[in-house]
Design goal:
- Helix content is 12%, strand content 56%.
- A 12-stranded antiparallel β-barrel has the order 1-4-5-6-7-8-9-12-13-16-17-18. Strands 2-3 form a two-stranded antiparallel ribbon. Strands 10-11 form a two-stranded antiparallel sheet.
- By secondary structure, it is mainly β.
- The protein is globular.
- The termini are far apart.
- It has one domain: monomeric porin ompg (Porin, Beta Barrel), CATH 2.40.160.40.
- 19% of the residues are buried.
Length: 260
Amino acid sequence: MAAVMLLAIVSKTASAQEQPEANLAQEQLEANVQVDFVSKYMWRGQELGHICIQPMAGISWRGLSLSVSGSTGFDKDDSDEIDVTLGYENSGFNVGLTDYWTSGQDYDGRDRYFYFDKAESAHQLEANVGYSCQWFSLQAYTFVWGNDFKYDSFRDSEYRVNGKRAFSTYIELGVPFYMAGLDWDVKAGITPFESACTRDKREEPSYYYADKLAFVMASARATKNFELGDMKVPVFAEFHANPYTQKAYFLVGVSIIPFR
């Protein structure tokens, strides 16, 4: 009987020690770094570039996260991109705000990063909300600031005047699963209404996503994970299509994750 009581005390003490350690691990500041090399830059059904390098670094603490990512092509004429995201996640639910900046997109072509004007700057702010679990991920994104307008004429588009805010929105469902030794991620994305619109000299409209409710993205990515010492090196191939524009693409890539 004494032995049983002693065992119970030791077990309870060990459990009490493990609980603070688990809580401490959750409260620690975590950092992550990743570098992707891709044969084609695809984003929500849009082709944004060819062979490029896409670095990312982030920190997280108690569900809060701050990350910076970018994209740089190997051709001198390719655009550079810097994205800064502040987010919060709890029990699978998440909210966030992302600042997108792309070279060559500001009003006067001077590529000023520290210039913030809702119509003239190359910055755009996008809010998102979503839920993720082991079976699926559902995310919604809406541009809330920056050059996200519906322009009625070429002059309006060229000078960024008289535009009506579009609140361009994108909703995506993702389903991850494991099959045949590979990690798979299948995604589908829609836009629920007309998105931002510009016009060329012939007054032909060009929509950011689509001119109505539309199915704008379908993709399937297969990933094989390799390990090199402390590094994780996923290699992936992806089929990416836009049913609205009737275009399809195939790309490959490799990620380098220095520590996990």
